[in-house]
Amino acid sequence: MAVDRHARTMLPIPDRPKPGLTTYDAKDPDTRFPPIEPLLPPDGAPNVLIVLLDDIGFGASSTFGGPCRTPTADRLAAGGLSYNRFHTTALCAPTRAALLSGRNHHSVGMGSITETATSAPGNSSMRPNTKAPLAMTLKLNGYSTAQFGKCHEVPVWQASPMGPFDAWPSVGGGFETFYGFIGGENNQWDPALYEGTTPVEPPATPEQGYHLTEDLADRAVNWVRQQKALMPDKPFFVYFAPGATHAPHHVPKEWADRYAGQFDDGWDVQRERTFARQKELGVIPADADLTSRHAEIPAWDDMPDELKPALARQMEVYAGFLEHVDHHVGRLIDAIEDLGVLGNTIVYYMIGDNGASAEGTLNGAFNEMANFNGMAALETPEFLVSKMDELGSPSSYNHYSVGWAWAMNAPFQWTKQVASHWGGTRNGTIVHWPEGIEERGGLRTQFTHVIDVAPTILEAAGLPEPTMVNGVQQSPIEGTSMLYTFNHSDAPEAHDLQYFEMFGNRGIYHRGWSAVTKHRTPWVMTGGALPAFDDDVWELYDGSSDYSQAHNLAADKPEMLAKLQRLWLIEATKYNVLPIDDRGAERFEPSMAGRPTLIHGKSQQFFPGMGRLSESSVLSIKNKSFSVTADVVVPDSGADGVIIAQGGRFGGWTVYAKQGKAKFVYNVLGIQEFATEADIPIPAGNHQVRMEFAYDGGGLAKGGDVTLYYDGRAVGTGRVEATQPMIFSADETTDIGYESGTTVTQDYTPVTSRFTGKINWVQIDLGDDNHDHYIDPEERLRIAMARQ
């Protein structure tokens, strides 16, 4: 093997020209310069493909004994290795931050999701520049890099069209190409997409057959083909992270229909079937036990009979969704194989970034935002049954019930968010690398963790861990390379100590033993008092004889439990876990959480053409009185279209014109819609249209009275009976003069939403202390500045 001439511990690799004879005339026979050579990794460095699916339990995929058919995962497992003790962090953004850095999630500031970031170092959502991402390291060593799909690592105050973009994949993340979405989830039928940092619209509509997963696969396949066509000697690093199978569970109906009737026996029976299949496949030990159902999770037999068909359909849709995304992963694998480079491509297929999600309530959800707003009661059993046939379609924003999440995590306890137990953190993972792995279809049982992926890839590529990146000294990678397991199935595990924590649910693994305590229940969004941390009850499990954490030994071995509890505290201190933070609503409010916010004061101005503004980029009008004033120019033919819209089909509000008249619509979760319309059209010419909402007060989610004005003259009144108190949408945005994504009301379509007149400006004001109903154009800026 040729000697590597590069000093790769300092990145970018310094340019160090060798001194020699400098001639005066280029025609001089002594004129010699070495040829310019493109930067490449060491000889033989493999291509890398990381596939990270979303919200999938250990017992969901057919590869690990589950009911959802995953033939691509099955195929890769048959040609590579399956890891049955691979772990994540119990939540999506923390797992992704850990994966892409090789560090624990609190070490890179991602103690939870970006939307609940605080000013504490372990929960700030800001990766320190001393912990450069893997993609940056590979790019600076000569890899081509690309990411397709979900990025949930951008701090919410940096997710506006103005950035800053340091945390975005194609800027500070090290990916030369990015196509996907920013945030925790997205509408699979009508996503808010970015190419690099530029907002783009989907290339087709749902009616034309568009689906996000297919689009992402198309882009990834085309990129890989182009990369090998233009740079055949240069390896690639592709990170393929589709939003599937995170809610909303969106999939073409024919994929869900493949599972018709297969879940009619319920989650208790399904869990038993999965457990038996897991033993049959050998993906769990023969002596493993199936953990019992906790009292907080209802039995299938205890669910209302009239609701069961809808519950079964929820799982059919989910299963189809998982099979659908696996199919499109297969298209990417096929493309790499067709190029003749699959043999020297390390494929990590991680089936889930945490356990199956129990965020869909005990009954499941037609619109999961209902639960995030503490309004799940609006979705009655009768309502859910009436919407059963729409599940998975563009008119839904659905999630399955807690019972199905529990079943999909078989044989383990608990679910996503519960970092204490393996149900929240153990994800079936496959590694496929024909030229680097001798065994085909092998099983690896060493304890491994998502922070181990980065050092594995660096070791496989022959690259050192960098000590300096972009002029900043780097802290050590905290993961342990898994390469030692590739060709040594019985090698002692090298990663034998690992802490876990999420919203106070915490645990530690050390040399086979695990000590864990569950602090809060994921699906309980509001109400319910949490215990003091010191009152949490810890459990103890011996992993050498109890694979699934089925037998609590805390009472039998108190000394071992105390040792592990102390060790958890040491690790928590080392990696910025402290202070433990189990707060709920407080962490959603920036001022209480201590994170920056883009918007200050009680007034915000917008201008026509502004759009794709995330909720954190716009003044919050929730649970308070507010007004919207727009200075518009109406043509003689009259005005139509959106003046301002926030949210979309599944919750939001809009001020617009319909057949010349101003209208205001408040949409509560896509379940209730309250409209107020002016009595007369907006006159032609330059006028101010104003909407005032007078909040009832007395708590959250209350209603209020609506008044519409033209130039200070009341022209219409109405009533909103209820509002959304916490969040409108995880993916819809605010737009001025048009509406992207789905529409708040069916009164218009995205095509007809563009305002036909001219909008000079739009302004939101909070409070009910301004009753002038008219803002003089010359005074507009002065008033706004005074309110800051």
Protein model, in words:
InterPro entries: Alkaline_phosphatase_core_sf, Sulfatase, Sulfatase_N. Residues 46-462 form the Sulfatase N-terminal domain. It comes from Kribbella pratensis. Belongs to the sulfatase family. The chain has 788 residues and is α+β, with helices and mostly antiparallel strands. The chain folds into three domains: 47-289 and 320-356 and 414-432 and 443-489, Alkaline Phosphatase, subunit A; 505-588, Arylsulfatase, C-terminal domain, CATH 3.30.1120.10; 603-785, Sandwich (Jelly Rolls). A ten-stranded mixed beta sheet has the order 8-7-6-5-9-2-10-11-3-12. Helix 4 (212-230) packs parallel to helix 7 and helix 6 (267-281) runs parallel beside helix 10. The longest helix is centred in the middle third of the chain and has 31 residues, at 308-338. The relative contact order is 0.13. Mean pLDDT is 95; it is low at 783-788.
Let me know the CATH homologous superfamily of the largest domain.
Alkaline Phosphatase, subunit A
- State the CATH topology of the largest domain: Alkaline Phosphatase, subunit A
CATH level-1 class of the largest domain: Alpha Beta
Number of helical segments with 4 or more residues: 17
Number of E-type strands: 30
Rg result = 28 Å
How far apart lie the N and C ends? 65 Å
CATH hierarchy: architecture of the largest domain: 3-Layer(aba) Sandwich
Low-confidence stretches: 783-788
> Which range best describes the helical content: under 10%, 10-25%, 25-40%, 40-55%, 55-70% or over 70%?
10-25%
Largest sheet: 10 strands, mixed
Strand order of the largest sheet: 8-7-6-5-9-2-10-11-3-12
Mean pLDDT: 95
**Quaternary state, please?**
single chain
Give me the secondary-structure category: alpha+beta
Strand content: 15-25%
What would the principal axes of the Cα set say about the shape?
globular
Integer tally of domains: 3
